[in-house]
Amino acid sequence: MNSGKQKRKGAKTQPPEWADGLKRLYDSVLDEPLPDSFAQLLDKLDDPSNG
Known about the structure:
- By secondary structure, the protein is an all-alpha fold.
- The protein is 47% helix and 0% strand.
- It is built from 2 helices and no strands.
- The longest helix has 13 residues, at 19-31.
């Protein structure tokens, strides 16, 4: 029983229309600089003298 909705093996699927925009948004967030306050917090957490 083939319902017609089964995908053929090796068939390429088209990504959804919104996938490109989501990838661009994700990439733009990765390119943002780390805020100074967050970098300072990470430095404090890495400092062994803070216990």
